[in-house]
Amino acid sequence: MRQIISILLENESGALSRVVGLFSQRGYNIENITAAPTEDNTISRITILTKGDGTIVERITKQLHKLVNVIKVSSHEENSVDIVGREILFVKVKAIGHTQREEIKTLCDIFGAKIVDITQDQYILQFVESSLEVDRFLKAVGEQAEVVETVRSGVCGIFRGEHSLHT
Amino acid sequence: MEKLNGAQQVVRVLEDLGVNLIFGYPGAAVTDIYNELYDSKIMHVLARHEQGAVHMADGYARSNGKVGVAIVTSGPGATNTVTALATAYGDSIPLVLITGQVATSLIGTDAFQEVDTMGVTRPVVKYSFLCKKPEDIAKNLRKAFYIASTGRKGPVVVDIPKNCQNRNYLFDYEPKSDVSIRSYNPTVFGHKGQVKRAASALLSAQKPVMLIGGGVVQGDATGEAYKIAKKLNLPVISTLMGISGYPTTDKQYLGMLGMHGLYEANETMHNSDLIFAVGTRFADRATNLVSKFCPEAKVVHIDVDPASISKTVGADIPIVGDARTVMQQILDALDEIGKEPADLSEWWQKIEVFRKKNCLSYHKSSDMIRPQEFMETLNMVIKELKIEPFITTDVGQHQMFSAQYLDFDKPRHFLTSGGLGTMGVGLPAAIGARFANPKSPVICITGDGSFQMNMQEMAVCRKHKLPIKVFILDNSVLGMVRQFQSVFYDERYSATNLDGNPDFVKLAEAYGFKGIRVKDSAQLENTIRAVLQSPDEFILVDVITDINTKVMPWQRANGSMIDMMLNDEENN
User: Which CATH class is domain B3-172?
Assistant: First the structure.
């Protein structure tokens, strides 16, 4: 079971390394991670996608909360309806000849991806969706065309409705 | 506002916080601070190794509850402290370590004596600060003391680059400021509903037991623990770190549990229906295999660290909060409920049967001193002389024997490295304890292996005329590892023979101390008495002990609490 953990913490030197260090030190998994300051630049927000059952995730969140510089921690199942989670994917593919270029374009239309760069024989595709959907898109692209390079941002998540990590 | 330079601010903050003693070792990156210490009222104790300095601060903190302070230089000075920081972290001891750092302009250039101190120490400290500008110094030091001494206590590092200490840069010194950290607010009071549930559970339990950990000692909660135990007639068991948290001579006290715990302690735990656990983290050496741990017991778990609750052993009634405060709340709740506790006479009858096993009995040997014999004799002489010494240990067989046999009726009098199990902590911790308690006798019980890991600190004892008594239980081997090899590795004694040991008596003499060697059981008692009756001098006693004695009881790995090997006639 994958979980999205959201962390608000003091934007101080070593803040990110404490969080990452905790995961490696205690043998927890990081599938992906994003970190950036919030609208208040003294506070950073980190989103981590991790693997583990409920007990493990409870332990992780407790340990995270114990870090002196962590202000708030919250966790949700990856596909929970309570959270909007998105990742950005760039994938550079070979796109040679009219037929293949059309096929890739159709695929992008179906998934709602964008072509953001074009050369004579390559496309760069941009896709923003949940991590699972990004996996599906990447698989579909791989079946259509030769993938040259990919980069994913890691997940960014925010709660739906009134609930908020900032209070 | 008063203008001071960075180095002056370091010293002034320490003075303002009431620090009157620091342990350390100078070097290029802290020379400005040392220059200011020269005129300060703060006493500085020069260790002979940075590890020793931090262990001294640790022993100081363990024995009096104040924050221990140490200062070292950058690079090797800082890396030498890592084991001592981890030792303090493992047992939640409040320390502040000031480390020098290369100038901010040189950070990241692999400069001389540069090391990423924040990075190297991160997993073994509660928190750490890098002062990027001089103005950070006072603020960060105050935060460091606050963090070290609140919640679950622990060591905090403050890394101060050389240029931030600059003598020529003067800036405003804010004499006082309240520390508040929005991301750090330890819970003090227990949840009222949970406290009530715990109190009811205690009243209705038929086979309850109180388990005290280091949190009871470090949290100054021994009085409350005693009151609850007396009110409810509870059997009391302690972890290694909990020793001295409850008077060990009290008849309700059953001793230490765990791997080398007492038979009656482990049996009582296993058979209990309610464990009232305070300030313990249910470490692996205490519980044996968690899935077989105390099958019938419900667990009330009080701890200031939420992450320690249900980390290994699941808690039925978790209460996050300060040990002392929460136990007082429980006392109040017991009064409020006003019910008589369940009659425990049957439970106590059962426990008395466990006790009759007399698991610490052993056979005296005619030709060699047995470690148990040493412990019993020392304990007896201490009682006879009516002294209340602080006793530090190192790590190994002598540590377990000390935990099993010695009595402590006052908290903070037993100083041992439980979590990390650091050999070499005994002598420097004794030095710290003596500085913290200049009128109390201090004894260091060590092994011939452990003692050699920090014996250079005898120089500090010489310089400051510290009348510490060191007893080396000298069997010429690494006894605890050898015990494993003897039982689990067909007596293949790989690398456990300490051939090449120095003559410890002559070593003591080289420092100007009296050294005594005891080989004969017949002389043991008189020697110990004579040594303890010499309050003004450092004495080292080399006690030659039996090589084959094993620490028993001994839990079988991956078993329950009661899967224990006991003294067998042939070996012990």
Answer: alpha beta
